[in-house]
């Protein structure tokens, strides 16, 4: 356990010194390797880093990121906003609920919390402020809506967990649906209660003819999540193949159907997608080196033995693990946490008989809190920059939604079929 403490200290010092996270992880791995062997075989370091990203399922990440970039246009976001508004706009606080609903639809496209927040926020925050919603509340709603992004498939964190734990990514995707919808409904209920108390405005009524027109216009965009999950659930294609289909469909919609992106602009779109994917991949490469170093020193087995000596009650152990993940999520990104902690805690949850699908979805839901908490909470910074309010104000507005996520996690722990039922129906 001393090795684990040294790792934590080295990583913390690196983060305090503002060293990029992938370099911080690499430094931590090298320190542990030196302590273990006294020398560092350079060829082994490069090999382990390459192996960490040499995976067919990981191809889904850049492809889903590309699909998100292609669909992240004003017109497409506006269509989803208008469609959701047509459904819940007449309820008090309806425009805030539109933010949640739009976040759910964008979750089915990109799988990235910050990308969803930016896409929804650019359209919705100005509209909410114009209708009289407080700027901090508007930003808090949009930041919370973005946190649903990694839960409802496609999900970049679930892909990474599936690769590390060697669990079916398709089943993980399906397992994320009910918790994602539970979070969404809890957010909507929270908005409804706050709206009633603060007397937020009601949107104008629309006719049935207008509703049909809005739905028809948005239907090509709404079909993308259906195509992705329909293909995976029916076994027509794998998660990686679904990502390729999603990117191709998004390309056709953005370039030829809606003509939001010109051919000359495609290089910029591809460049942004490549940069985002590269950041994830380089973190995975160095984190895999660290994970391998910890594993060679039998740290996971030692941690498992220590945890099981405290209690053999699965609920208590999952509570402890969730606490660790929650604290880690305040300082590290989801990718780093999954790659570091999954190998450490996985032997423990297997020993306790916890379903790996449940564990992966639960940890991913937990990590969605990290994007809403300082000092690293990315959604807070994205939403605050759009709304032009202080980050701490957005955080305070997000606290009721954070509590909703915590309740969702507790329900998953108490009623595991919430996650495992749908995947159990798959072959």
Give a description of the structure.
The chain is mostly helical. Helix content is 78%, strand content 0%. The relative contact order is 0.15.
| Poorly predicted runs | none
Largest sheet: none
Strand content range: under 5%
Distance between the termini: 40 Å
- Structural class of the helix and strand makeup? mainly alpha
Kindly state the mean pLDDT as a whole number?
84
Helix run count: 21
Would you list the SSEs in sequence order as H and E? Answer: HHHHHHHHHHHHHHHHHHHHH
- Our Rg estimate from Cα atoms comes to 22 Å
Q: Which descriptor suits the 3D outline?
A: globular
Number of strands: 0
Percent range of helical residues: over 70%
Give a quick precis of the structure.
This protein is mainly alpha-helical.
Features:
427 residues, 0% strand
Helix and strand layout, with pairings?
Layout (H helix, E strand, L loop, with lengths): L1 H15 L4 H17 L4 H10 L8 H12 L2 H15 L5 H14 L5 H18 L4 H13 L8 H10 L3 H7 L1 H22 L9 H27 L4 H19 L8 H31 L2 H12 L3 H16 L4 H19 L3 H15 L7 H10 L3 H24 L2 H8 L3
Helix pairs in contact: 1-2, 2-14, 3-14, 4-13, 4-14, 5-6, 5-7, 5-12, 6-7, 6-8, 6-11, 7-8, 7-19, 8-19, 8-20, 9-17, 9-18, 10-21, 11-20, 12-13, 14-17, 15-17, 16-17, 16-18, 17-18, 18-20, 18-21, 19-20
């Amino acid at each position: 356990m001393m090795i684990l403490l040294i790792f934590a200290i080295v990583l913390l010092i690196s983060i305090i010194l503002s060293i990029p996270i992938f370099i911080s992880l690499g430094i931590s791995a090298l320190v542990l390797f030196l302590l273990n062997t006294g020398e560092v075989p350079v060829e082994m370091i490069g090999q382990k880093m390459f192996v960490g990203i040499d995976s067919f399922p990981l191809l889904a990440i850049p492809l889903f990121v590309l699909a998100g970039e292609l669909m992240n246009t004003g017109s497409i976001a506006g269509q989803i906003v208008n469609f959701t508004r047509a459904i819940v706009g007449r309820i008090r606080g309806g425009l805030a609920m539109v933010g949640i609903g739009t976040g759910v639809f964008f979750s089915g496209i990109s799988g990235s919390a910050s990308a969803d927040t930016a896409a929804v926020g650019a359209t919705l925050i100005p509209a909410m402020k114009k209708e009289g919603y407080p700027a901090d509340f508007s930003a808090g709603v949009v930041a919370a809506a973005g946190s649903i992004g990694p839960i409802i498939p496609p999900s970049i964190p679930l892909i990474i967990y599936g690769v590390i734990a060697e669990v079916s990514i398709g089943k993980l995707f399906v397992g994320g649906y009910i918790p994602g919808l539970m979070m969404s409904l809890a957010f909507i209920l929270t908005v409804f209660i706050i709206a009633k108390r603060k007397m937020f405005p009601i949107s104008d009524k629309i006719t049935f003819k207008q509703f049909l027109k809005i739905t028809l216009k948005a239907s090509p965009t709404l079909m993308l999540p259906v195509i992705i999950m329909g293909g995976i659930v029916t076994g027509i294609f794998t998660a990686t193949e679904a990502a390729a289909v999603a990117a191709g469909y998004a390309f056709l919609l953005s370039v030829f159907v809606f003509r939001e992106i010109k051919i000359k602009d495609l290089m910029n779109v591809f460049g942004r997608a490549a940069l985002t994917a590269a950041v994830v991949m380089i973190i995975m490469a160095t984190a895999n080196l660290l994970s391998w170093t910890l594993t060679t020193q039998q740290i996971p087995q030692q941690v498992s033995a220590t945890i099981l000596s405290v209690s053999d009650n699965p609920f208590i152990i999952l509570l402890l693990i969730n606490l660790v993940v929650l604290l880690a999520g305040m300082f590290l990104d989801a990718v780093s946490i999954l790659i570091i902690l999954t190998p450490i805690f996985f032997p423990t949850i297997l020993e306790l008989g916890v379903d790996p699908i449940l564990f992966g979805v639960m940890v991913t839901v937990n990590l969605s809190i990290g994007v809403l908490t300082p000092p690293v909470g990315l959604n807070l910074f994205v939403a605050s920059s759009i709304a032009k309010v202080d980050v701490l104000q957005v955080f305070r507005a997000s606290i009721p939604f954070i509590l909703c996520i915590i309740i969702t996690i507790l329900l998953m722990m108490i009623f595991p079929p919430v996650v495992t039922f749908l995947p159990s129906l798959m072959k």
